[in-house]
Amino acid sequence: MSLHFNAFIWPHGYHESAWRVVPDDVRGVLGLDYYADIARTAERGLMDSIFLADNLAIAEYRLTHLPQTQFDPIAVLSALAAVTSRIGLIGTGSTTYAKPWDLARRFATLDHLSGGRAGWNIVTTVTPLAAAAFGESKHPDLADRYERAHEFTDAVTQLWDAWGDDAVVGDRTRGVWADRERVRENHFHGVFHDVDGILPFPRSPQGRPVLVQAGQSPAGIGLAARWAELVFSGPPSMDAAVAFRTNLHSQVAAAGRDPGEVRVLPALMITLGGTEAEARDRARRLEELASPEFRWQNALYTAGLDPDGFDPNVPLPASLLEGQAPSSRAEQLFEAARARPQAPLREVAAAITGGAGQTHFVGTPQQLADFVIEWQDAGAADGFTIMGSTLPYELAAFVDHVVPILQQRGRFRTEYTGRTLREHLR
Ligand SMILES: Cc1cc2nc3c(=O)[nH]c(=O)nc-3n(C[C@H](O)[C@H](O)[C@H](O)COP(=O)(O)O)c2cc1C
Description:
CATH superfamily of the largest domain: Luciferase-like domain
GO molecular function, one term: monooxygenase activity
Pfam families: Bac_luciferase
Protein name: FMN-dependent oxidoreductase (Nitrilotriacetate monooxygenase family)
Keywords: Flavoprotein, FMN, Monooxygenase, Oxidoreductase
Bound molecules: flavin mononucleotide
Domain Luciferase-like: 28-380
CATH class of the largest domain: Alpha Beta
């Protein structure tokens, strides 16, 4: 089975210290060239897709420690559609804060403009700060968010399906642009959303842009089981990844779908070097620059908690640890805190890195190729979401040095055979 790779784009790289070690202009990440260069590199490496995350509200501590470049992913991907021709374009969209009609239109627009390369990463938005940004009085809890997500996705796919494939007839003689008989009326009435009306343009090349899902809680996996064709996960180890994928497959089957059509691409941060020692030096330099102040605030923020409400010099309050965790990331943090009840938050959080809970691979291209194949053979992954610890450097190294090894071993395509993202994922 051919592997699948998704390139996670992040300003200067996924490691929090990346922007401090790369020589590039710190403001370069606010211009199209930065994204275009990465997208072209990923396409040169025949990767399935590039991916842009979305965060709808930014806690202010982040401004100090991390480059802030959270543009609208669809706007950026639409620009990238013009400078690439084959690679898939996946962006995040929130089922808690968007409206189904608006989101359906934006992703279908991207699918049209890119010739069928769009993917929607369905997220429910963890950060409670988004509520204030959108003028809502309360951020819904996890169960509520996922209930809305099912209904939202239902509404979006109905919108995408309303125009029949062959609705545009373009008959100049009769003066008929589209056949109304081939466009379904759309009336969606749910608990959370009502959508009356169709999209203002015909069905896009893929019909439905590819559905992607990244939530790790039982409710998140339930959403993936019903809808997702591609799943991003953040397993801490190969064994955890096998368990995750096995569990997902059985839930996909229980939902009446074919597990063979769902690709699981765990998030993997990579730091590469010509020798292992060189890779380790690069990783050490990144870690040395990491701020402990950032770590504890970020552990809370990515778990869906507001860092301003906490004192890092005392343990997390017992009342919090006893209650329901607001996300799967919070559950991980709570578990670490329960294991060391006397330890201050700052110490517990020091070991918690990276927003997606990803594994950090440090080594040579040869070692990474071995690692990838080992995970694939163990049934842990269908490929990876590659997060360069620094960008564009780690991604270029992956494309130039790891991809050829995987091709030689017959594990990865040597050319694109499909045109659409869904075809790449086959
Ligand atoms: C590779 C990867 C990418 C993600 N991208 C986003 C994103 O762009 N925006 C977002 O709000 N959450 C993102 N998440 C977080 C998940 O969507 C989800 O919100 C998180 O895992 C918490 O939900 P859960 O409690 O169901 O796991 C990502 C997670 C992973 C592993």
